[in-house]
Amino acid sequence: MTRAASAQDFEVRRTDDDSVALRGALSEEFVDTATATPVRLADFSELAEAGEYYVEVEGTAAA
Questions:
Q1: What's the pTM?
Q2: Residue 13 pairs with which residues in a beta bridge?
Q3: 33-60 pLDDT tens trace
Q4: Domains and CATH numbers, the chain
Q5: CA-based nearest residue to 62, from 10, 8, 19
Q6: Which burial class, exposed, middle or buried, applies to 62 when counting CB atoms under 10 A from its CB (0-12, 13-18, 19+)?
């Protein structure tokens, strides 16, 4: 299992100053039936502030 696969949490960060706008827990891993790829979901619904952001998950590149 990779570190990314074992990650439990995510952060949404502002691009202008790298501050954390939202922290949350990733869903349990499941297999996407269209691609047969293991995935986890991140819920951004609490992020109400307009802006430019990126997502960080331990063990992955920022996106």
A1: 0.79
A2: 20, 54
A3: 999 999 899 999 999 999 999 999 987 8
A4: 3-56 (2.60.40.10)
A5: 10
A6: exposed
